[in-house]
Structures are given as C-alpha cells and as structure tokens.
C-alpha cells in the first residue's frame, strides 16, 4: 500500500460497514477535531491473528468510559470489525488502528453529550516503527514537556489529547537526529517515550517506571510477565533521572515499537545486551506463535 494516508486503495470499517478508503471521511465540525474527544488503539496482526486483540478492545471501551464517551459497540463487535477490515484488505501482517470519537451533531461547544460516538477500523502494512534502530539501538532526546498528573487528565485512557506533547516532543527529537524522546513526569520521575514504555537493566535485574501517571501498556504488561517467567527480577518503581547513568541496557515496548533497543538517551549510553536481545527474540516468537 502506497500513498498518503488519505489517498490509498482499500477498505476502512466505518460505523458498521466497510467503505472505500478515500470515502472514509468526517465533517469539519466533528467534535473530536475541535476538542480531542477521541480514543484509539494501535494493534498488530501477525500471521492473520491480532496480538492481544481482546485486551485492546476492552481497553478501548474503558478509555471511552474515562472520557465520558460510551462507545456503542461490544468487545465482540469490535473484534469482528477488526478482522473484517483485515480480510477486506487482504492482510495477514498489518498494523490495526481502531478509533472512536464524538462526531458532528447537535452540540458544538465543549459539551458533546448530544453528539453520536462513532468508530472506525483501518489497517495497513507497517514495518519497524523505528526503522533500523530496532537492530542497532534507538537514540532518544529528553523532552522538555512533562507527563501530567492523573489529577489533571485521565492518564489511564489511550486518548488522542494526551498525545499532543508527544507529537511536539518527537518533532523536536527528530530535528536533533533522534528517533524519539523520553518524558519525565510532573514529579520529575522517568516516565516513558512518546508512544512506548521504557525498561532498564542493571546487574541482571530489570527496572521500569510504575504506571501511575502513564499508560500501562499491553506490551509492557506482556514483557513484565515474560521476564518473570524467565526468572528475571523486575522492579516496578519510581526512577530518578540521575539513575540513567547507572543502567547498562535499555529498551522500549509498545505495539508499534514492539521491542526496540535503546542505545542512547541524551548523554547516557546503553549496550544492546543479552537480556535486551533475549526479550526481543522471545517477544517476536510469542507474537508469531
């Protein structure tokens, strides 16, 4: 599949039916465009099966609830929509994007309870999110923005509005020749990258931030369980920025990122070591099993 994302051949599932890709449009006064009333999921299909698909569908519904935006589909209906979209486009290995949003309707102020909640599923072939960094280790900038307090925004939701600072931070990182940026949170603790959770290795043990102000990623949870099954100690804790100097290895996890080694964050460097490689290989085997 080639071309810009609004000009491609294929089908998109939209509000209960498959439509031509170029015709999957919304009105300019769609509430989500103006007020970020939108939640989404990013998923990957491997060999025709969407990895952790049900968990993603369940989280989508939860995100909608957190934004006071009840999504009018069940988990089973969302699952069918995803697989219908894959089949309509002839994909077995693909990225799957499910998005739900407040559409255009009777409300056009901040409140939008009179407007319908709509949903779409698009899928496309997508390789490594960080390109060749997946093999040699990504280089990360340190973002100037902070992950906000859960008292200010529903950080447990995978909501479009939470990604505004991610876009700005990734633009700034790419301008410096980096692949991504690492956030600290509102307290100054290490948080996550713009679209991925972060893990560190020291003395054979793994350390990762507590998800109390960041999204508890499904890939993150999968990798933590994988490490525990391997007998590797995992510390979920608050990590201070000055600790970065003492970590030996680092990697990112996410549906798009999969398992991506990190070679550098700011002035701190890391090796792509045995634990990182083993986790990446084990995850690849798991998703294709």
UniProtKB/TrEMBL annotation:
Pathway listed for it is: Amino-acid biosynthesis; L-isoleucine biosynthesis; L-isoleucine from 2-oxobutanoate: step 4/4; Amino-acid biosynthesis; L-leucine biosynthesis; L-leucine from 3-methyl-2-oxobutanoate: step 4/4; Amino-acid biosynthesis; L-valine biosynthesis; L-valine from pyruvate: step 4/4
Give the domain of life: Bacteria
Q: Provide the reaction this enzyme catalyses.
A: L-isoleucine + 2-oxoglutarate = (S)-3-methyl-2-oxopentanoate + L-glutamate; L-valine + 2-oxoglutarate = 3-methyl-2-oxobutanoate + L-glutamate; L-leucine + 2-oxoglutarate = 4-methyl-2-oxopentanoate + L-glutamate
InterPro entries associated with the record: Aminotrans_IV, Aminotrans_IV_CS, Aminotransferase-like, B_amino_transI, BCAT-like_C, BCAT-like_N, Class-IV_PLP-Dep_Aminotrnsfr
Q: Name the Pfam families for this protein.
A: Aminotran_4
Q: If you read the UniProt record, what top EC class would you report for this enzyme, in one word?
A: transferase
Q: Which UniProt keywords apply?
A: Amino-acid biosynthesis, Aminotransferase, Branched-chain amino acid biosynthesis, Pyridoxal phosphate, Transferase
Write down the required cofactor(s).
Answer: pyridoxal 5'-phosphate
GO terms classed as biological process:
isoleucine biosynthetic process; L-leucine biosynthetic process; L-valine biosynthetic process
Look up the EC number in the record and give it: 2.6.1.42
List GO molecular-function terms, semicolon-separated: L-isoleucine-2-oxoglutarate transaminase activity; L-leucine-2-oxoglutarate transaminase activity; L-valine-2-oxoglutarate transaminase activity
Concerning its family, UniProt says: Belongs to the class-IV pyridoxal-phosphate-dependent aminotransferase family.
Functional description taken from the UniProt entry: Acts on leucine, isoleucine and valine.
| Record's protein name | Branched-chain-amino-acid aminotransferase
Species of origin = Cognatishimia maritima
Gene assigned in the entry: ilvE
